[in-house]
Each structure stands twice: as C-alpha cells, then as structure tokens.
Amino acid sequence: MAATPVWSVDPRTGKQRAQVTVEAGPREVDEAVRAAHATRAALADRTARTAFLRAAADLLDGAVARVVETADAETALGPARLTGELARTTGQLRAFADAVEDGGYLDIRIDRADPSLTPPRPELRRYKVPLGVVAVYAASNFPLAFSVPGGDTASALAAGCPVVVKAHPDHPATSELCGALLRQAAAAAGLPADVVSVVHGFDAGLELIRHPLVASAGFTGSLRGGRALFDAAAARPVPIPFHGELGSLNPVVVTPAAAAERAEEIGAGLAASVTLGVGQFCVKPGLVLVPEGAAGDRIAEALAKALGETGPGVLLDHRMRENFLAGVAERAALPGVDAPVAPGAGGEHTVGAGYLSVPAERLLAGGAYGLLLEECFGPVTVVVRYADQGEAGAVLDLLAGNLSATLQLSADEAAGAPGPAAELIARVTALAGRIVVNGWPTGVAVAPAQHHGGPYPAATSHSTSVGATAIERWLRPVAYQSVPDPLLPPELREANPLGLPRRVTGAPDAAVQPAG
Fold it and tell me: Cα–Cα distance between 127 and 491 in angstroms, integer?
C-alpha cells in the first residue's frame, strides 16, 4: 500500500501548497521510538544537554525569517505573532538549559542515619531520574511554542528524556523545519540526532502512544482527541503518565462594583482577549458573567462596539472554520440566546467575531443549555447576565475544570473591602489552575511560578506545561537506602562532585554555594 502523502495547506485559500512528507506507518514509528530509546545514555550527560538546548535556541533564532515565513504560510497567524512566539520558544529552551545547569530540578535530599529515632532511620538519599522516551503531540494553535520545539519537547529533553513528536497536520512543513534544526543542534552538542524525531499521521499518533518503549506523553488539543489518547495510555499493559491539556472555558466574573466603575474598559478588554489570535488561544475567555442592570449594559455595549470594529480572520484550517460556524449556529438557536454581534462567516475563508448573550436563569435550567458550557474554538464568547451573587455562584457551580478563571473587581474590592471578592476567589480556586484579577487570561508568561493546567478536563494531571516545573512531568523519584558511597550515582555521593544543590536532613547543604 502506498504511503499517504502529508500536504502543507494554505488556510487563507484552502489549497495545497506542497507535499511535505508521507505519514509514518507502524514500522517507521517503531524505528523512531527505538532510535530515541538508544540515545538515553548519551542524553544523561547534563553538560551536553545544556549545550544542546542552547544550540537549539540559537539555531531557531538564526532561522527566524525562514521559520516565520513557513509557519505563516501554514497557519495565517501573521509574522508579528509568530516572531513573538518564536522568541517565546527559544526563551523556553534557554530557561530549561539554565534549569539543567542549576540541577535543582533533581530535588536531591539526604537524610542521615539516626538509630536513636523510633523507628530507627537508615541513611537515605533521593533524587529524580528521567522516565524514558516521551511522545509529544503538537498543538494546532501554537506551531512553535507548543509544537515540535515547544515546551513539552524542551522540558522533556531537559529532564533527559528523548522525544518523538507527532506533528500536527496544520503545520507539517514548519514541523519538519523545526525538527531538522533540533536534530542539527543535537549533533552540534555531540549528541545523537535521534534524541528528537518527528512523525506524521493520525495512525502514527496511535502507534506512538501504544509503543512499549514510550514512557510518557504530552498532549495539547481537543477534549475528544486527548481523551482517546489518555484512555489508550491507561489501557496499555503497562500504563504510562499522560499529561494532556484538553480544553477550557476560562470563566470571567465581573462584579457589580467593577461594572459600575469601569464598564467600557472591561468591555473593550474582553473583546481584545476574545479575538486575540482569532479566538484560538486555549485560555480565551469563553464564558463571562456580567451583572444585570445599566452598568452591565454598558459592558455589553462596549464589547459589541469593539467586536464590531474587529475585521474577519482566518482560522487555522477549514475544518476548524466549519466547526466554529456550526458551533455558534447551534448555540444561537437555543431559546432565549441572543446574538448582539453575530459570530459567523466573514467570507469564503474567514470568520467574523461576535458574542452570544443569555440570562443566567436560562443557563441554570440545564438540558440543551449545557452546550453553552462547552468550549467553542474561535472568536466568540458567551455573556451570562446574572441577577445577584447567588445566581452567579450557581452558574460557577455548573462548570468543570478550567485552565484559568478571571475576576474583574472594583478598586475597593481589590483592596480587600467587604464584598464578594474573597468568596469568589475561593470558588474559582476550586475550578481553575490560574486565577487572574483585573487582567485577562490570554498570554501565559513563562516563569518559575507559572501554572498552566487545571482540574479535568482542562488537564489530565496536576502538573504544569508552562514554566520551570514542567520538567517534573518527565521524572520519577528514586531513594537509595544504605548504599555504599562508591556505588551511588554521582549526584548523590557524599563529596557532591557535581556541586548540585541538595537538602541534608531537612536543611540546605552548607557546602554548596547558591548560584549568583
């Protein structure tokens, strides 16, 4: 049987640009995974890993014009957005190189033997080791930062795990280009190129999650696709960790006091957040609770004005466009749902931004209105008008897990004045992995304190996919009890020959000087 071709498609026209490669069959997936597995010993060298990650960042930065041009041709995201995304991508690679060099991610802990305790404590030494080959499933909406050279790949490589990436079909040429640059960087650092490889095709993704040498997986995409892979990972003879980001509604609550204080600012800010990237951000605010009354009406008017001034945009592919048009039409057809600015087709290949509005009492009726509580990918949000705090809280109680939740508060509420703010913070903390106050959730900073995840279905684990602690997904702890020093891994030996940070019987090791 002939291999299935993989085409690069222009989303601005729907036409094929060029054949990039062919889909990988079972044999090609097996070869890629086995080749990756064979590089584990070489990748264990922390110095080489650090050099590799930095070389990858440098090569990507050096190819910025070619990478951005290729990605724009396949995604229509625009040079400005993609140039920024590439900077984010290379920044992630360098940040993980710094983390590897520092060594704190190993979480080294030593407990001295103490026979006087009850029960007696033996000598214990603990650190973390890489899991093995990681399967990364690239995202559609971030062809760089959450795809072949993105955060899952960077954090897994930093942990010492080889990576096989299942490229997203929306940007195969970009995936091949970035994969080639990563492999070139590996060779420059003295590592086998097979520490990273790229495969294409839906069936290849299934083969990958089932391969016995794949030790973990990272996924960013839809609830349906992610759940299928999550279930496959759990159904293996030896189940593996599956770190999936499956979608999020990202609720926003506007208090009456905030609406009275700055309605126009909130309406305009909401429109900008909803339409950023043509509404294709995983943290797009998809459900907004706005109080009834004149101040809430002003928010709606400002939102409508800003959305009306937003031109049509191109989604990542025509399948997504069709899903968006069908999704907004089905929601708008529900009794009591209005479309003050109707989202829909903006042209043959584009979509227009808009919003739907529904009274909270309708949403609380349940039934078909549950559709409004599901993510609709694209430039649309649902404004829920609520009568009082009790009604707003009842709507929040309907929600599943989310990546983010946003509160728009008045200046006095934000300063701690009596009111609903504290209760709202507690409510949304139970719903989301990141809480935003008087800002907007779009834009996820890459920082040590960041958390990009949340209760299911936002994510399938409690780990973050953004920030330094993303490396923890690909590691497991091992404790060594009463093991003679010469037989210990170098990271755990008494002399600390690698100069790594560690805690000894609960306190920082005084022999190791903090960096800087």
Answer: 8
Q: Would residue 245 show up in a list of annotated catalytic residues for this protein?
A: yes
Of 37, 36, 33, 39, which is closest to residue 211 (Cα–Cα)? 33
Structure tokens given for 328 = 């907004």
214-220/251-254 β-pairing: unpaired
Query: What distance in Å separates the CA atoms of residue 321 and residue 8, rounded to the nearest whole number?
Result: 17
- ∠ CA 197-476-458, nearest 5°, is 70
pTM above 0.85, yes or no: yes
Q: Is 282 a catalytic residue?
A: yes
List the end-to-end C-alpha distance of the chain, in Å, as a whole number.
Answer: 59
The helix or strand, by DSSP H or E, that contains position 88, with its residue range, turns out to be: helix 79-102
Give which of 170, 152, 153 is closest to 321, Cα–Cα: 170
Q: Which of 74, 85, 245, 413 is catalytic?
A: 245
Q: Which residue, among 95, 209, 68, has the nearest Cα to 151 in the 3D structure?
A: 95
Which value, in Å, is the radius of gyration of the alpha carbons in the chain?
25
* Order of strands, sheet of 402-408, starting from the edge strand that comes earlier in the sequence: 338-341, 354-359, 380-386, 287-291, 251-254, 402-408, 432-437
Strands 251-254 and 402-408: parallel
Helices assigned H by DSSP within 76-215: 79-102, 151-159, 172-188, 202-210
What amino acid is encoded at 218 in this protein? G
Pairing of strands 133-137, 163-166: parallel
Q: How far apart are CA 378 and CA 284, in angstroms?
A: 9
Per-residue pLDDT of the chain (516 residues; tens, 9 = 90+): 678 999 999 999 999 999 999 999 999 999 999 999 999 999 999 999 999 999 999 999 999 999 999 999 999 999 999 999 999 999 999 999 999 999 999 999 999 999 999 999 999 999 999 999 999 999 999 999 999 999 999 999 999 999 999 999 999 999 999 999 999 999 999 999 999 999 999 999 999 999 999 999 999 999 999 999 999 999 999 999 999 999 899 999 999 999 999 999 999 999 999 999 999 999 999 999 999 999 999 999 999 999 999 999 999 999 999 999 999 999 999 999 999 999 999 989 999 999 999 999 999 999 999 999 999 999 999 999 999 999 999 999 999 999 999 999 999 999 998 888 999 999 999 999 999 999 999 989 999 999 999 999 999 999 999 999 999 999 999 999 999 999 999 999 999 999 999 999 989 987 665 444
**Catalytic option among 161, 178, 282, 376:** 282
